[in-house]
Amino acid sequence: MSSNKFINLLVPIISLLLGLIAGAIIMVGFGYNAVEGFKALWNGAFGDIYFIGETVRQITPYIFSGLAVAFAFRTGLFNIGVEGQVIVGWLAAVWVGVAFDLPMIVHLPLAIAAAAIAGAIWGFIPGLLKAKLRVHEVIVTIMLNYTALYIANHLVRNVITDKGDRTESISSSASLKSQWLMEFTQYSTMHMGIILALIAAVFMWFYLEKTTKGFELRAVGFNQHASKYAGMNVEKNIILAMVISGAFGGLAGAMEGLGTFGYMSVQSGFTNIGFDGIAVALLGGNTALGVVLAAGLFGSLKVGALNMPVAGVPTELVDIIVALIIFFVASGYIIRWFLSRMKRRENK
Amino acid sequence: MEYVIEMLNIRKEFPGIVANDNITLQVKEGEIHALLGENGAGKSTLMNVLFGLYQPEKGEIRVRGKKVKITDPNVANDLGIGMVHQHFMLVDTLTVTENIILGSEPKKYRLSIDMKKAEEDVRKISEQYGLKVDPAAKISDISVGMQQRVEILKTLYRGADILIFDEPTAVLTPQEIQELIEIMHNLVREGKSIILITHKLKEIMEVADRCTVIRRGRGIKTLNIAETNPNELASLMVGREVSFKTEKEPAKPQDTILSIKDLVVKDARKVDMVRGLNLDVKAGEIVGIAGVDGNGQTELIEAIAGLRPVESGTILLNGKDITDLPPRKVTEAGVGHIPQDRQKFGLVLDYPIGENMVLQTYYKQPFSKRGVLNFKNIYDKAKSLIKEYDVRTPSEFTRARSLSGGNQQKAIIGREVDRSPDLLIAAQPTRGLDVGAIEFIHTKLIEERDKGRAVLLLSFELDEIMNVSDRIAVMYEGQIVAIVKPEDTTEEELGLLMAGSKKQKVGES
Amino acid sequence: ACGTGDDEGQDTEGTDDTDQNEAVDFTVAMVTDVGGVDDKSFNQSAWEGLSDFGKENGLEEMKDYTYAQSETDQDYKTNLNRLVRQGYDLIYGIGYLLQPAVDEVAQQNPDTNFAIVDSVAEQPNVASITFKEHQGSFLVGVAAAMKTKTNKVGFIGGTDSDLINKFEVGFRAGVKSVNPDAEVVVQYAGGFNMADKGKVIASSMYNQGVDVIYHASGATGNGAFTEAKDRKKNNPDEDIWVIGVDRDQYEEGAVTVDGQEYNVTLTSMVKRVDVAVKDLSTRALEGDFPGGEILEYGLEDNGISVATTNEEALTEDILHEISKWEEQIVNGDIEVPKNHDELEEYLNSL
Amino acid sequence: MNLLEMLQTMIPPALFFAAPLIFTALGGVLSERSGVINIGLEGLMIMGAFVGVVFNLAFVDVFGDIWTPWVSILVAAFVSALFALLHAVASITFRADQVVSGVAINFLALGIGLFLVKQWYGKGQTDMVDAPFYTADIPVLSSIPVIGPIFFSNTYYTTWLAIVLAIVIYLIIFKTPFGLRLRSVGEHPMAADTLGINVVKMRYIAVMLSGFMGGLGGSIYALTIAMDFSHSTISGQGFMALAAMIFGKWHPLGAMGAALFFGFAQSLSVISATIPFLQDVPQVYLLIAPYVLTILALAGFIGRADAPKALGSPYIKGSR
Ligand SMILES: Nc1ncnc2c1ncn2[C@@H]1O[C@H](COP(=O)(O)OP(=O)(O)OP(=O)(O)O)[C@@H](O)[C@H]1O
Ligand SMILES: Nc1ncnc2c1ncn2[C@@H]1O[C@H](COP(=O)(O)OP(=O)(O)OP(=O)(O)O)[C@@H](O)[C@H]1O
Ligand SMILES: [Mg+2]
Ligand SMILES: [Mg+2]
Questions:
Q1: Chain A residues in contact with C62 (beta carbon < 8 A)
Q2: How would residue C3 be classed by pLDDT, with cut points 50, 70 and 90?
Q3: Which positions fall inside the ABC transporter domain (chain B) (predicted)?
């Protein structure tokens, strides 16, 4: 048992190392200094308190979008629509943030709730169609991504503002920014959202693993027939799963709207937070803790990558390294296989 | 060259278990050789070794006297070995013909499949061996019995002359079993040799020439059928005496628990399957439903359990209307249900067996409180059920998937019986089980009856129906056409009633 | 990053202390928007301006003058801050998308000078560079109006935003000023990277009889060029045109039919970000940093121009007409509208 | 505009819009019919677009204006097929989660494409190709009255290649031994295995074919529409192709129909903007129309579709 746990821990670490080694080989192959490259990557992500702040800021929405994808996955649904849910959540949060003037104790929760609700609605649609009409959620969520993008742009321009490119900044009473945190991290964009993200992860873990609702959701994900037989309402659970997943997506948007940016501009394309959430969720094995760790890895690499040109290495290389790490983590089976072979040889 | 197949001292290990431990099996040319053993004794494993799906750790295989190494099913096919697997290896979405020719398709213009020729070929062998099938039908649209014929045709199409049947009769109705036995005789007449795995001693006695008994992975004995009897076989296999006729006191029926009036239920294709059915089941009795598969039994049971909408009519439980209530409400009203398809309905295979034990009760105290699960109580409960019902599993945390079908079945029965429902519906509760397990389950059902519960038993085994029921309701074309007492009838009479030939009304007893 | 053949810095190693006679003690950097430093558009143009400035002043590339590339909107602040922390004297944010980031970072770092291109940030240590795209668009509108035979011209926008509206409005004003009967068909694609949609829109416009399309839509416009070239290829006699944006898109318009070379790029509305960047950097170097000011580059200071590469298409007449209007604009005789309200006013005044 | 003119303006754009999606969706059909989820279609298209453009730029002098685009898409298809091998190795041999592996393919393609463009061209995107595909009137067919001008005039040969390939792949999947085996492997790999079909080999072939088709889709997008390669050349088309595949119920002709539907919806929304009584409708309605129409079509009358049963699960001998 304990050696099993050890291997479970070892596999992702080896995958990570293999990915980095592959990256190093590519760097050397193209005549870059791999040591300098990795040093720049490290410094860009953790070099000092400022960069750590930035990295945390980047991790925050990834946790939410990763949870969104993972939550749906655990109930047997593939939510490619987190991107759209991020956008509507962002919009709703900012809208509430600029439209009202309320004490923080009311305003901030209201704005956050608005984002969650908007995302939830965006998840409700594919959930409903799946439950009632058995329409495949993958298509509906892809279509809703585009729909969200265009509607949000329209609303920013024509409803929230009068032909403006971006909304006003939200009132400080709705902001996740904290003066203290900013000063502490030497004016990084880190905000209080990370706390919400960690709470959300704990919530997901608790809800799925420890509650009767979670028991139902997972059962429906594994076997709808048996769930129905056991008296669970399959349709309701499918909708609920998509609604909660969507709410997580919406909250990822709130992190951008109320934390990182404080406004919403007309988007010329997708934010990619939702799409990256797919990778984060799967890297994290669709568990809450896994998502937090994977978001950490993903966020660090993304922020660190911005610093790589300092060592003359193009940022694009980081995309390659990220991809390779994902490959290696996904292929954990083969690493396990090697490990168990090595162990057996040792035993003999 | 007496033996077509010789498996000598075969050993096959799985992580943590020796499935085959030095087993020897010798099959003579042209015989039907039965392989007998408890659930999990290692029969399927041995056959999978012969068919090339598993590689043995030790041992030697000879085919027609020649030593061979069967590295994969292709090699087995080339050696003329064909296998009808315990769980059918059929592609649901393909047609009968497509399934049969898959892998060795007749070609037209060197590129495309010559479907005409294929269907012709299929028709030819199907006629030659008396295996009637509709070559153009989709697998998902045909009956289990028909599917099995397709499996047999697959092996014959490839020219197999050594056929392995792994529990072919577990899923068949008595009629289909008779047909299969006929088919096996045909095959042997055509010069084929057959290895037959079955838990039904009667069948072994009827068709087999010799029988090899294995227990817990070890070969026990090979006997000539002519020189043995079911009792000997059973005790060799289980290691103790087994009684075939379950002892029971006469029933003491009390109030009516289940009362069905003019029930009409449609199947998925919107065809009426239950057509104005009436039935009462009383507390303290076991009512067996006898009938040929496809006469609306499944629909009836699913309708009672709330899994299928009711078109018209009423279902009363303890006088309370439960017609069209959702499954949860039906369960709470006091119905327990051992479903026919245990893997599809009975279990969440990816959940630990322990959590499967509370599949309908997880939301109640003491398994949860205010929506939060109490795993200690859940697993405590599971542990005691596993013990009581002799579910063989490494632990209560093992995923249900890796239990054998028999043990999965015992787990479900334990779960349903333990809830002590007023009405227990048991649909084919012993399908695929060995005689020891069957004995155990029958005893449990009778115990429930004696506690004053009503039991509705659905089975295609007339043996079981005759053995366990207090009253037998014969179902034909969506209606109960007769109600008889087992002591007043014979299997022959039942068979006639089930075929709908003698439509007589037998008064309620 | 990779080996720009600039050997100047190589002869001396420790360039921290200036052994070079002409080198000055000034460092400058820019942050691109998501287009990247080599977008063949305004990011690239800005970098060219900065490089020019650096070379002229003996600065070392990627050290004394450098850029940081943004992959997503979230990277702007991170990049700006990183450059601040590396101690650059002047930091540019290229593109209106960076406005909020520059605004905030500037506020937090009052000792560093910033500049924002294409937008305005009202901070004492920020110089805002904007362009009078409407002026340039007006002039290409004039060209379009002169060139059209069908009296129908088209405009394809990326997203419907203030900035792109400026292009649309200027263009429409230009067209109507010369040819009040001409119809302007306007469509927004909804994004800057939708070449397929751009092509569908262009195809629809040409089918309606539009013969000149002005696009302000980044890579979406590629689709318009593709469509125009395809039509040209099939029917070299058909007179259809595209007007490029941001830089001279003459190259994009080249098409060879039966050995004969054609070019569908009538002209381009060129935005000289390089000129502005170089200009501002020089002022900063000279200690004349215009903090808090808005520098509006237009026709008068070569910040905006109209490409005349396609000599065959831009006839004397057209060139003449363009320069006539240009003069009036530069003189201030004409105030080119910048938004829809002003356009209405302007059209009514015609 | 009368109806005929309307169709004449609406159909050709619908066709060229749909073509790359058809190729890629067909690739998806092949892969998923064998039981391997391919969410990496986007990445395969990116690889195809990248190779198609780079090859075109580099070899235009060798192959000339006519042949260069054809050779380019072929090379792009082969390179993408090789690239898809990564997905195959990870998800079939290494038993990686097929969705994860597909996601990695998407990241990797973009990373490699941009990195190499930067290495080779020293900038963020390539130049525009000089030898793209051009539309033409298809001989004979274009002179058929009514249909000719709508479907066969001013059309890309590649569009018709897409449609022909859809039919060919339909025939392969449903009429040949290879197709029968492919479907059996995707539905019940163990059954196929017991009949001596090499499940792993079939899946490798299918995934590589999906790479081939995705490569065609991406390169044809680049050489009929985008003309260059940059980070935004392929942005979402792969996911639309994925949607088309599901929309089309994993059927080659269905996938083609769905892709044509998308193309038609896009074309319709663009044309609508020019219809007088629709001109005052806010743009946003027209922008979202194609996507909303798709959802409505699905909800209204397409309904459920069943994926191949073994989709997503690695085949492990001797387990069930
Ligand atoms: N794939 C496997 N992996 C691990 N263990 C296995 C596997 N297959 C079989 N076993 C083990 O081998 C033993 C024998 O299994 P086998 O399937 O041969 O039983 P059987 O005699 O066919 O039983 P049944 O009557 O239930 O079909 C089982 O107890 C099981 O624990
Ligand atoms: N993947 C697996 N891992 C571990 N054990 C397995 C696995 N697959 C099968 N087994 C074991 O194989 C044994 C028998 O498997 P088999 O498929 O014959 O069961 P079954 O036919 O469904 O059961 P039964 O015959 O009792 O109804 C079981 O004891 C089960 O534990
Ligand atoms: Mg069994
Ligand atoms: Mg077995």
A1: 309, 312
A2: very low
A3: 5-241, 258-502
Residue given tokens 């960076």 in the structure block? C98
CATH ID of D3-133+149-304, from 3.40.50, 3.90.1520, 1.10.3470, 1.20.950 = 1.10.3470
- The reply to whether ligand 2 has any atom less than 6 angstroms from the CB of D119 is no
Chain B interface includes A211 (CB < 8 A): yes
Q: Considering only residues B421 and B129, tell me which one the structure prediction assigns the higher pLDDT.
A: B421
In the block, tokens 């000129």 appear at: C275
Q: What is chain B's mean pLDDT, rounded? A: 90
Contact D226 C200 (CB under 8 A): no
**Residue A268 in contact with partner chain C when CB distance is under 8 A:** yes
From B13, B14, B165, B171, the mutation candidate for ligand 1 (largest count of ligand atoms within 8 A of CB) is B14
Helix (H, G, I), strand (E, B) or coil at B191: coil
Residues A150-178 have a mean pLDDT of 90
A123: enclosing H helix or E strand: helix A104-133
What is the ipTM metric for this complex?
A: 0.88
User: Which pLDDT value is given to residue A8?
Assistant: 74
For the four alpha carbons of C340, C342, C343 and C349, in that order, the dihedral sign comes to positive
Ligand 2 binding pocket mutation candidate from B13, B404, B434, B438 (most atoms within 8 A of CB): B404
Atom of ligand 2 nearest to the CA of B392: 29
The number of residues in chain A equals: 348
**Residue D124 is nearest to which of C38, C188, C203, comparing CB atoms?**
C38
Domain layout of chain B by residue ranges: 5-238, 256-347+419-498
Q: For chain A, what are the domain ranges?
A: 63-292
* Residue B353 Cα distances to A210, B383, B409, D99, angstroms: 17, 10, 11, 28
For residues C158-176, one letter each, b for 16 or more C-beta atoms within 10 angstroms of the residue's C-beta and e for the rest, the string is bbbbbbbbbbbbbbbbbbb
Q: Which CATH code of 3.30.870.10, 3.40.50.300, 3.30.499.10, 3.30.2310.20 fits the domain covering B256-347+419-498?
A: 3.40.50.300
From first CA to last CA, the distance across chain D in angstroms is 61
Work out the pLDDT band at D1, boundaries 50, 70, 90: low
Residue C34 confidence (pLDDT) above 60: yes
Q: Which residue has the tokens 């084929």?
A: B192
Report the distance separating Cα B364 and Cα B371, nearest Å: 9
d(CA C106, CA C98): 12
Residues with CB under 5 A from ligand 4 (ion): B 44, 86
- Give the closest residue to A181 by CA, choosing from A307, A306, A57: A57
SS3 string, A163-199, reads CCCECCCCCHHHCCCCHHHHHHCCCCCCCCHHHHHHH
Q: Quickly state the pLDDT bin for A3 (edges 50, 70, 90).
A: low
Cα separation values, B143 from B148, B149, B252, Å: 9, 10, 38
Rounded CA separation D215/D28 (Å): 12
What are the strands of the beta sheet with B66-68, ordered from one edge? B17-28, B3-14, B58-63, B66-68
Q: Which CATH superfamily is domain B5-238 in?
A: P-loop containing nucleotide triphosphate hydrolases (3.40.50.300)
Write the burial class of residue C58 (CB in 10 Å: 0-12 exposed, 13-18 middle, 19+ buried): middle
Q: How far apart (Å, rounded) are the C-alpha atoms in residues B93 and D311? A: 14
Across B255-259, B384-388, B456-460, D147-151, least confident range = D147-151
Confidence of residue A283 (pLDDT cuts 50, 70, 90): confident
**D29-39 mean pLDDT:** 96
pLDDT confidence of residue D306: 80
The total of other beta-carbon atoms located within 10 Å of residue B229's CB is 10
Residue with tokens 């070299």: C236
Query: Model confidence over B421-461: pLDDT tens digits?
Result: 999 999 999 888 888 888 888 999 999 999 999 999 999 88
